Amino acid sequence: MPKNDKQPVPDFKGMHDRLAYIQQHLAAPKERVNAERGNEVWHWRGAEDILLAVKPLLAVTGCTLVLSEEPLLVGVSLYQKCTATITDADGQSMSATTAVREDWSDKLKCAAQISGSAVSYARKYALCGLFAIDGGAPAPATDPDYKSSLPVPAPEPQAPQQPRQTDMPAANKKELPKEGTTSWKKGVELAKNGNYSRKTLRKALGVKYSFSDEEFDAFAKAAGL
């Protein structure tokens, strides 16, 4: 809200006026404090802090804010894309989008926590872009959210006759989820958005999963390949 509650609210002419008003008056201070390494202290904010601060301004301007997420498979990397969209009563809207790669090198988190960390970080920076505010910490390496979304280096290409270094030993591979299960359907949906050929899809699946030719054919057919 504006610092002076008695300050008259402008006569907004459109979505640009409303968003400009929010950007000028939004105050989401970095009130969270971390001191995890010796005496080093830094201040940061999370997505929830921005949302809490912007709600009164949404009421003043007559706007609604919606956050939407979408998983994106790029090669063998899974990204969480978040879009923050603000809309006024006339249906005019503006949005900002951020995509964050999931950090599957983090062995301390389960799959849900890894995805959740990427979504949280993407949400925060989509909101920062929309409302013209800075990031949450003085440097990426000190941002608690960022620690869960550091990019995983792409595997080095190997000669065809050599085994892929990223492949798991056959004994450690999981079986491909059964056709029709929730995991199988999610995998098919990700494969559809991954710009795969049948050859590259088979290689990507083979990194973690074991499967028969018939199981792969069914999966590839469902993905439109």
Backbone structural class: alpha+beta
Sum up the overall morphology in one term. elongated
What is the radius of gyration computed over CA atoms, rounded to a whole number of angstroms?
22 Å
Q: Secondary-structure element sequence?
A: HEEHEEEHEHHEH
Tell me the domain tally. 2
Question: Could you tell me how far the N terminus lies from the C terminus, measured between alpha carbons in angstroms?
Answer: 53 Å
- Beta-strand fraction estimate: 15-25%
Low-confidence stretches: 138-142, 146-168
Separate helix tally: 6
Largest sheet: 3 strands, antiparallel
Residue-averaged pLDDT = 78
Instruction: Find the count of extended strands (DSSP E, 2+ residues).
Output: 7
Q: What is the spatial order of strands in the main beta sheet? A: 3-4-5
Report the helical percentage. 25-40%
Multimeric status of the protein: single chain
